[in-house]
Amino acid sequence: MTSTQLRKDAARNWERIVAVARDLVDQGTALQLNDIARRAGLGVATVYRHFATPEALLETVAAPCLEALAAHGEQALADTDPRRALEGFLYRIVEAQVTDAALPPVAAATTDTLPRTTELKNSLASAGTTLLERARDARAIRPDFAAADLVPLMCGIAHAVTVHGGTPTDRVDTARRYLATLLEGMRPTPPNTSALT
Q1: What is the reported pLDDT for 1?
Q2: Model pTM score
Q3: What is the pLDDT of residues 153-174, one digit of tens each?
Q4: Closest Cα to residue 148, out of 162, 128, 173?
Q5: Where does residue 185 rank: exposed (0-12), middle (13-18), buried (19+ CB within 10 A)?
Q6: For 101, phi and psi rounded to 5 degrees?
């Protein structure tokens, strides 16, 4: 067997492992590498050669979503309307949280297995912080709203939507409604004019 054939076989095996893992994550099943090997029809050693831990495999499953979110963050940074840019970014984040089952555990993890996961999470955090600061500087949001508030609030919305349940479309609609309520609360408080009347 030539080295080209070996590389093609390895690529096919990698794709098969990730596809099986994707299906299991979507079903809400915890990833176990021995189980993945059995379901993929591969040897356990083959799976471990590609993914040393279930966490590495889960991060790989979440990677396309993280890549798309990071790209959207870059697009949002190019938007000249600070409020619109922040809102669009947050809507995309919360929709991803409730539609891609791999994202919440990877986003919530305090440590990452793959360097690329850390890079993407840092890119998202940086974009969110910059967008928030721009909106705050433009007085489009409350001055006391901090960048550190974003992740807990987005996770909170995603958790509330999960508890609420429903179809994927229902979950997205609920997430958008909850986020709209949050965004309304982020608006700057108008000055109190009652003392002038």
Answers
A1: 47
A2: 0.86
A3: 888 898 888 888 788 888 899 9
A4: 128
A5: exposed
A6: -65, -20
Q: Between helices 115-137 and 150-164, what is the axis angle to 10°?
A: 110
pLDDT in tens, 72-120: 999 999 999 999 999 999 999 999 999 999 999 999 899 999 999 999 9
Rg of the chain on CA atoms, in Å: 21
Distance, C-alpha 117 to centroid of its chain: 11
**What's the full length of the chain, in residues?**
197
CA distance 154 to 98: 10
- DSSP letters spanning the chain: --HHHHHHHHHHHHHHHHHHHHHHHHHTPPP-HHHHHHHHT--HHHHHHH-SSHHHHHHHHHHHHHHHHHHHHHHHHH-S-HHHHHHHHHHHHHHHHHH-TTHHHHHH-SS-SSHHHHHHHHHHHHHHHHHHHHHHHTTSS-TT--GGGHHHHHHHHHHHHHHH---HHHHHHHHHHHHHHHHHHHSPPPP--GGG-
166 φ/ψ sector (left φ>0, alpha ψ -120 to 50, else beta): left
Distance CA(70)–CA(119), nearest Å, equals 10
